[in-house]
Structures are given as C-alpha cells and as structure tokens.
Amino acid sequence: MTSNKKAAGSIGMAIIAIVALVVGLAAGYGIAVMTGGAAPTTAVAPEKKVYSIGFTLPLSGELSSIGKIWEKVIQLAMEDLNKEVQACGLNVEFRAVVLDDGTSEEKALQNVQSFVQQGIKVVIGPAASAQVKAVKAYADSNKIVIVSPSSTAPTLAIPGDYIFRTVGSDAGQAKALATLAYQEGARKIVVFHRNDEYGRAFAEFFERYFGEMGGATIKLPYQTGLSDYASEVATLASKVQSEGADAVVLIAFDTDGANILSHAAESAVLSGIRWFVSEGPHGAEELLSPTIGRFASKVRLFGTRPLFIANPLYEDFKKRMIQRFGIEPGVFSENLYDAVKLAGWAILRAGTYDGEAIRAALIEVAKTYYGPSGWTIFDSAGDKAQQDYGVWAIVLGGPKGYQFKDVGLYERGSIVFLEQAYP
To answer: CATH 3.40.50.2300 occupies which residues in the chain?
Structure first.
C-alpha cells in the first residue's frame, strides 16, 4: 500500500471513529440527563456542569524543557475538548488544574494527594516512570485514574491497576533502538543510562535484544539529579576506551542529556564513535545548540521515539502548535493531547464523577478514539496497544539553526530511512 493510500485510509478511519465516539457519547449523555422525570412546564436553563482534570507536569527539574511545551499542548487540547462538547449541545465545561512536580517523585505524589483533596478523580501525568511508580499505590487505593503520556518503563505494565499510559512501553522501543544501532554497524555498545526506573528497565531490554542480534552491551548507570555531568562523562570515555566499544547508547532526559552531550563533544574518544539516543531528550531546546548540533553531525547521532507513522492528524496538530504558539510539539506531545481528549470523554461516558466508573469508561472510549498519536486502544496492562517508532536526528537547516527531524521508521523488524540526515 502506498503512503498516500495509507494516509487516506487513516483519515477515513479517523473520521468514522471520531464521529462514532462523539455521537455515541453525546447520545448517552443526553439520555443520562433526560431520564430524571417529566420536564417542568417552565423551561429553566440548567446550571453548567464543570469537571476538573488534574495535571502534574515537570515545569521545572530534569524534564522542564518538554514540560513547558506541554503547557501549550494542554491549552490547545482543553480548548478543543470544550469545543467538541459544546458542539454536541452538552452544558459541560472541562477545566485544567496544573501543578508543577519539578520532575520529582515526592512532589508528584504530593500533587496527586492535593488533587484528591480538591475532589479531582482524574490526573494526567506525571511524566517520568519513577514518578508514576511513586504515585501508583496511592492512586490505586483511592481509585484515582492516572493517565501518563510519557511513562514507558516495562516494569509498570501491570494489569488491573488505575495507571494508564497513552504510549507503548520501552520493551518495544528498546528493540527498535537495538535494531537501529546494529543496522548502523555497532557491535559493542556502552549503554550510558539514568539510574532510575526508566533508565534501568530500558537498558535491560536493550541488552536483551541487542544480544539476540549478536551484539555486546556494557551497561554504565549514572546518578540523576546532578547539576553537571562532566565527571560522569569522563568515566564514560574511560569505559569506552578500556572496553574498545564502537558506540554509545544514551538513555536520558532533556537537561541531563543535553549536559552529557555537551561534555561528550569535548572528548576526542567520545567524538570518534557512533551515538544513539532514546526518546527522552527529543524536543529539548538545549540539544539544538551549535556545540551539540556539530557533535551530532560528527558522530551521526540517531535516536528513536514513539511516533505513529503516516498520520494526518499528527501533521495537523503539529501545524496548529506552530501557528498558535510558534513551537513544534516535543516528544510525547501528541500522546498528551490524546490523553486529555480520552479523559474528558471518559468522564462523560461514565455518567458520574467516580474513579471506578471513569476507569471502566476510559477503556471503552480508547477503543474508538483515533488522534494525533494514532489509535489509542489500551492493552491488558493499560498501555497503548499499538505503537510505532520513528528515527530522529539533529540537522542543520531550521529557522534557529539546528532542528529535530524525523528521518526514518522502524518497520517489520528493520529500520527504513526516509531521507538522508547527515552528509
């Protein structure tokens, strides 16, 4: 099937799914509000029903670069959700309650507890897997629906809980990244990874898949939360040299990833081998500095990220973000947008603002919702069931100099490049 036919098919499926979702939910909601007895003789305008959705975002800390982009995504998504609801004739309004969690596990839990005190039953976020792990027990015991757009640790794929993720787990991405590295000629890799839930799980799955392909992996964890990683990068250079590695895989977030890459650019050892990166740093403005941009070109840096291929709704979402806010959506922005839509329609479908009812409704709504991130059907563990992966690079040519660019995709067990990234 050609890409044009794929796109046309995607549009058709999207229209059918969205129409079915909106019409079905609107009808169901109408029945719910109209079965309370006979209509009064004098029509009285009903009071608008307001539902709050909590957002715990990394507006500061190690994911602050992407967190600031996400603020804009939420604004757009909430506006779109309210317009859809109003177009269906529903006297309902959704409001966002946004709190900064500083990319901190403790603060994320405090935020969720604060939302519960405010009577909020649905929370979007937190971003990091370690944070999701920190709030899980509290959310489960209090029946609070948590929808993370970016937590990917396979260790959190647990059936029956109140944690949902609008992205696939890193079990899939680790295979895509291992395929990319092996196909590009790497055979002995140092995996330099965050020593947290996300980094450890990703490194373990990468080691498994890269080993199955015939490659060798040396895992090297680094402490998170540091203000500077010069010493850790020096240790990495020493390990690469002593092991005779031909590549590095970096599993990082945005601020730590940028700092690591800036120091690596100063190392003759680390500038002489290939580099591959997880999705974590994608979208961070710091990675587009001239220093890192030149380094990326020199080492032919490639990364992977969750990305639904040939999706016209994503392209429209990206265009609107640029037109409205002057920024491109960073990694997981489309997953966040869809999380907002799913949460809103699940609340309406549930017919009551109750965590248990909303949890059940969320699963059903996701079966017929197609958005910028593609189909959102959840698997048995509450993770996105169908997830594609793209290949990204840092290239020269954007209005500000360097830019992120999707240059390939992971398809049927191999990497297919759509265009040349580096000279």
So the answer is: 3-32+47-167+332-375, 170-306+389-417
